[in-house]
Predict the structure.
Amino acid sequence: MNREQADTPLRVVQITDSHLFRDPTAALLKLNTQISFDLVLELVQRKEENIDLILATGDIAQDASMEAYVRFGAAMEQLGAPFYWIPGNHDRRAVMEKVAAHKDAFINLVKSGNWQIVMLDSSIVGEVHGNLAPEELQHLESCLQAAQNDPAIAHTLVCLHHNPVPGSALWMDGIGLHNDEEFLAIVDRFKTVRAVVYGHIHQELDFLRKGVRYLCTPSTCIQFKPDVEDFALDDLNPAYRWFDLHRDGSIISGVERVTGHVFDVDHSSTGY
Ligand SMILES: [Fe+2]
């Protein structure tokens, strides 16, 4: 029985905001990002039997170093599924593109079963906030238009680094996607969009907006506290997200956090 007959969903894993450094002993607000990343990957290996694909949604490196991207790519290979990455505000696309072993990771449209996954680059070099350049918006629109005329594609998942809707803390206002209205106008116009998936604000969110699911995924390192005015870290542990994408368009998703470890973070910090 093949996948279509069995209605076996696509199993997707999202890994985001790993903030790796050139130096694997370096820390972000006291937390060693390599150790927390390794613990999340151990958890993925323990929990996930058959991953179809991995989405790496930015802030892969804290210092945009080649060494960090190479280590990240090698770790993804251990998971035995293709991975696709997009840059975050801490990344440099030009450096990521030089990681020769992972040229395919920059594919910006992935098709699997009757789903398409559109990968968008919302990063701006030197800025914390995001913006989708005209060619990125055009890419999204043309993928959605093509799906309307393609009987093989019924559902779309859209990925970007920056939050296109506000996060759940006041200090986050201004660091999200600045041309959110342009992006949302396209998403709202096409009926195949089932979910918008992102990272950047290091917290777990899962809600509906105009019939589309919006999911934010915790970082593999530090966590940002929800419902606060000023920057604050949360005590929740590092995590990844899994999705089951079904042929009928339904999505089952959850977050798995590292357990059995207490991570010491700098709660006195006023930013990152
Ligand atoms: Fe981040």
About this structure: The first helix runs from residue 3 to 6.
